[in-house]
Amino acid sequence: MITDIFGWLSAALEGNFGFALFGAFMWGLLSIILSPCHLSSIPLVIGYISKQGVRSTRAAFYNSLVFSLGILFTIAAIGGITSALGGLIGDIGTVGNYIVAVVFFAAGLYLLDIIKFVRNTSGVKHLKSKGYTLAFILGLLFGIGLGPCTFAFMAPVLGVAFQYSATSIFSAVLLLSAFAIGHCFVITSAGTLSAKVGKYLKWSENSKSITIVKKICGILVILGGFYFIYLTF
User: Fold this and answer.
1) Which helix (H) or strand (E) holds 31?
2) How many domains does the chain have?
3) What pLDDT sits at residue 157?
4) Residue 41: CB partners within 8 Å, gap ≥ 6?
5) What whole-number percentage of the chain has pLDDT above 90?
6) Which domain holds residue 180?
7) Mapping DSSP to helix (H, G, I), strand (E, B) and coil, where does residue 208 land?
8) Which of 45, 55, 149, 198 has its CA 20 to 30 A from that of 90?
């Protein structure tokens, strides 16, 4: 089944441009769903939305989108730098995995209420609805360790994009954009859905249900940190 899907997507990328765009989008989706590295971003963004007390579906959508864009920004920057230096594209060695692991441990302990970050309570409302800086920073830090994993999934799309770039740079950019949209779609949907469910169930920031969700996400995020350390061996 999975092999058939990969075969179909590969054929789509090499077909007409419309199929190639759809194939790039689907490949972006699979880069999250089939990758343990990227899949660990789901409990992180859900836990973040829950911890910040974001109840507005729109605010949850934008927070999740900014988080995923932060990941893509870092991946693109690292990919460009490592490629320019002649190294394996996106590979910054074991350092990136350790950095992401530390971020995951801190985020997980924060979701478990074991550690607390000092914040200006007068700006809590602004942070919950309009302040996306922290979400973007989390995405930036998370993206550090995802280079090799992401570019492994991007390889087919990059290959086709380079072919199109010989005749149309615009077409190549559209292909990469379709991959990016698919990549962001899963993360953004997960974060938005978590807020929508919380709103439907009328969860408050201190309700028992939301506390359980935060703790489960915290444990999953910490396990994600251990996974990144495991990748260094």
Assistant:
1) helix 17-33
2) 1
3) 81
4) 32, 67, 68, 71, 142, 187
5) 1
6) 2-230
7) helix
8) 45
Which H or E run contains 224?
helix 208-230
Residues 25-38 have a mean pLDDT of 82
Joined together, the tokens standing for residue 21 give: 């765009």
Return d(Cα 111, Cα 113) in angstroms, integer: 5
The pLDDT of residue 123 is 42
Global confidence as pTM:
0.72
Q: What is the pLDDT of residues 129-166, one digit of tens each?
A: 445 788 888 888 887 767 667 777 777 787 788 877 87
Residue 61: partners with Cβ closer than 8 Å, 6 or more residues away: 188, 191, 192, 195
**Residues 171 and 99 sit within 8 Å (Cβ to Cβ):** no
Residue-wise pLDDT for 53-91, tens only, equals 666 788 888 889 999 888 888 877 776 665 565 555 555
CB 151 within 8 A of CB 83: no
Residues near 126 by Cβ (< 8 Å), separated by ≥ 6?
none
Q: Which two tokens stand for residue 128?
A: 């919950």
- Please give the biggest Cα pair distance in the chain: 58
What does DSSP assign to residue 99? H
Alpha carbon of 24 to those of 31, 63, 144: distances in Å?
Answer: 10, 24, 23
Residues 6+ apart with CB under 8 A from 73: 139, 140, 143
Judge residue 162's burial from the number of C-beta atoms within 10 Å of its C-beta, 0-12 exposed, 13-18 middle, 19 or more buried.
Answer: exposed
